Amino acid sequence: MRRLLERFLAYMEAVQNASPYTVKNYGNDIGQFLDYCQAQEVNSPERIDRSLLRSYLAELDAAGYVKASIARRVAELRSFGDFLVREQVLERNPFRLVSGPRIPKRLPQYLTVAEVEALLAVPDTSTPLGLRDRAIVEVLYGAGLRVSELARLDVADVDVSQSQVRVMGKGNKERIGLLGRQAMRALQAYLEAGRPALLGQRPTNALWLNHRGGRLTVRGVALMLNKAGKRAAISIPVSPHVLRHTFATHLLDGGADLRVVQELLGHANLATTQIYTHVSQSQAREVYLRAHPRAGKADLP
Length: 301
Known about the structure:
Elements: H1 2-14, H2 20-39, H3 50-62, H4 67-86, H5 113-120, H6 128-143, H7 147-152, E1 158-159, E2 164-168, E3 174-178, H8 181-198, H9 218-231, H10 240-253, H11 258-265, H12 270-273, H13 275-291
Antiparallel strand pairs: 1-2, 2-3
């Protein structure tokens, strides 16, 4: 079964364009299940049944795995099973005989407008790295990009005349990220003064450069934001995804249509975007209770 796993991981990388991080996680998690199968003397996928799977999930639960981790493994195994059916190794997917644990939906964390402004004030824009960091925060917040989309941008993806960037999203689907005046101003300042100063001896098409002149990585962006959030004294850890959540929440709070936000975020399914309506509604309730003259009265008839 290990060879089947290797074929599946190769398929993920070549056909689904999965990131090395995703491929590694799938390999580790599915490999852990295959080790369990071997311990149970199950050496072929045809022998995988509901009883085996329920025993495996019970063992994960007993070992202290959280519900989200168990649910992720079930999803990964289902994908593996779909691949085996597609390759005609199995007639049906045995991993669809069990369900993962239900995970309560957590509302996404986001920043207030004041916190965004505090974060933007952190970079020292008299330096090339400061110009870069300010532009990154502006673009992440201004366009709601995923960090992988941001890190993948090339200079040619920036359309200054239209105030937008061309983004390659999940599943190699292209979309447009719109940028406001402040974001474009910061991006142009970086392109004119920051990036040329960071550019090393080797030419590169990458938009965002590290201090050595190479392409800035996803991890580099995350570390920069985390440090900036701490310097801005923001109470929650600041990450690229927090800025993406902030982008969506602030748009909805400002009256944007849910389907417009869906399009801007690059969500294939509207249900993925709808979680932000809960955040926006909770914000609306707080504003109502604070602002309405009679909203807080305990002695209302």
